[in-house]
């Protein structure tokens, strides 16, 4: 799958391509026995993913920091699918305290958990630290999801054991993972303002999403857990993600319009990786346009993935011990 198939929309080996929509790739899938959490499910790709999961019968938990937007997203789903099962839970991924509160609340609901879509994200922010003192894009896009996944993992494993249904985790990455700092992750200068680039910091966080998926996949395979983990690039879609570079992106879209997707197409790769039967047992892979693709060499670096895992674990431990 390259630029030719992106532009033409021609299907790849999976039978789907860049022009496939989330509804098309989930056609015929019955998700009525599945519970899914979608972070950032109140807008953009996440909202469309939530809509299509609900359409296929899944119990959808929208995890959002903006509860008003989440309520609107739920109303929109109910308009077209009145029988939809949609719950809203508050989550601010840039706050480890909020991540803990979210998982405590979810676990207290005593629901199964089959699928986790780590979708929420921010892009190209000016330099800013989270309430835990971590660079904002790394905190939101990677650390929040890293900790959320860890806190929900036992639930996913036990659901898979009890039901015999494979659990699936999907991390929303981006082709932007290739545009990062020289060594991939600025471990020793993560929070430094000096040398900070909003674009490289975004690329770094998206690289972290792939490395996280790969290392978690490796660990789960080692344990023999019936849970897979994959990462995806959804394509280029005009959403609120562009809020920090709205004008630039609008200009870019005018000259590169054939490379852009609508949100229905943008949610397709996530839905394919999370629901399609042909992805059963597939883990530690990266998908673009609903087909397996090869990410950058840094993203395939197993040593870097393990280093990021240890670093993230230590960071979370230090921040949570500090505060609570
Ligand atoms: N759009 C693209 O072209 C593109 C390309 C490659 C990858 N992606 C990835 O796709 C994913 C979805 O992006 P999108 O285009 O759908 O953008 P979007 O419309 O801005 O959606 C992102 C969602 O994440 C939420 N979010 C942001 N910070 C959060 C936080 N601290 N805690 C909880 N939720 C938070 C946003 O909520 P608020 O509304 O409250 O901010 C929003 O609902 C992102 O991971 C992005 O990196 C997108």
From TrEMBL:
Pfam families in the record, alphabetically?
Answer: adh_short (PF00106)
Q: Which residues form a coiled coil?
A: none
Which InterPro entries did the record assign? Answer: NAD(P)-bd_dom_sf, SDR_fam, TIC32
CDD domains cross-referenced by the UniProt entry: retinol-DH_like_SDR_c_like (cd05327)
Q: Which family does it belong to?
A: Belongs to the short-chain dehydrogenases/reductases (SDR) family.
Designated name of the protein: Short-chain dehydrogenase TIC 32, chloroplastic
What is the source species? Ensete ventricosum
Organism lineage reads as:
Eukaryota, Viridiplantae, Streptophyta, Embryophyta, Tracheophyta
């Amino acid at each position: 799958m390259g630029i030719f198939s992106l532009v033409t929309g021609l299907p790849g080996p999976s039978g789907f391509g860049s022009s496939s929509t989330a509804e098309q790739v989930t056609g015929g899938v019955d998700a009525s026995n599945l519970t899914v959490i979608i972070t950032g499910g109140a807008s953009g790709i996440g909202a469309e993913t939530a809509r299509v999961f609900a359409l296929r019968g899944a119990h959808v938990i929208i995890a959002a920091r903006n509860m008003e937007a989440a309520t609107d997203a739920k109303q929109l789903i109910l308009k077209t699918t009145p029988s939809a099962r949609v719950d809203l839970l508050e989550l601010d991924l840039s706050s480890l305290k909020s991540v803990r509160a979210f998982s405590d609340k979810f676990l207290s609901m005593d629901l199964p958990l089959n699928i986790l879509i780590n979708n929420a994200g921010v892009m190209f922010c000016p330099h800013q630290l989270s309430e835990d003192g971590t660079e904002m894009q790394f905190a939101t896009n990677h650390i929040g999801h890293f900790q959320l996944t860890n806190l929900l993992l036992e639930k996913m494993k036990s659901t898979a054991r009890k039901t015999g249904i494979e659990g699936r985790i999907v991390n929303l990455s981006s082709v932007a993972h290739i545009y990062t700092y020289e060594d991939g992750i600025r471990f020793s200068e993560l929070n430094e303002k000096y040398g900070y680039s909003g674009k490289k910091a975004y690329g770094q966080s998206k690289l972290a999403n792939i490395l996280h998926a790969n290392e978690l996949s490796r660990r789960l395979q080692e344990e023999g857990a019936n849970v897979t983990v994959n990462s995806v690039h959804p394509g280029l879609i005009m959403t609120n993600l562009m809020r920090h570079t709205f004008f630039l992106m609008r200009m870019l879209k005018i000259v590169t319009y054939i490379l852009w997707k609508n949100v229905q197409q943008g949610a397709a790769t996530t839905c394919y990786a999370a629901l399609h039967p042909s992805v059963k047992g597939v883990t530690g892979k990266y998908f673009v346009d609903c087909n397996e693709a090869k990410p950058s060499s840094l993203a395939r670096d197993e040593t870097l993935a393990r280093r990021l895992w240890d670093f993230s674990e230590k960071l979370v431990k230090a921040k949570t011990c500090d505060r609570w």
